Amino acid sequence: MRRFFFIIAIALAISFIVPEKAEAVNYDIEKVTIQAEIKPNGVIHVYESYTYNFSSPFNGMTRTIYLPKGSFIDNFIAVENVYQLEVE
Fold this sequence. Notes:
Elements: H1 2-15, E1 18-19, E2 27-38, E3 44-54, E4 63-64, E5 79-80, E6 83-84
């Protein structure tokens, strides 16, 4: 049963990855790592790591995460290398 919830959590995490707007930027996603842990109280802790390779001039990346009604995200942190990024 735990494995089922883990698979559901991974599928939900991947389905929330939607680019905010498309621009003429060439890039590859070289590596994606997603770790999810479901606690007994239903809280899911998710760690995601993306490695991008940009082949055109570019100065940033934007991601929007859409949540199901009644859900929320707490303690969200974005980091590039060792520097914490601004999160809106």
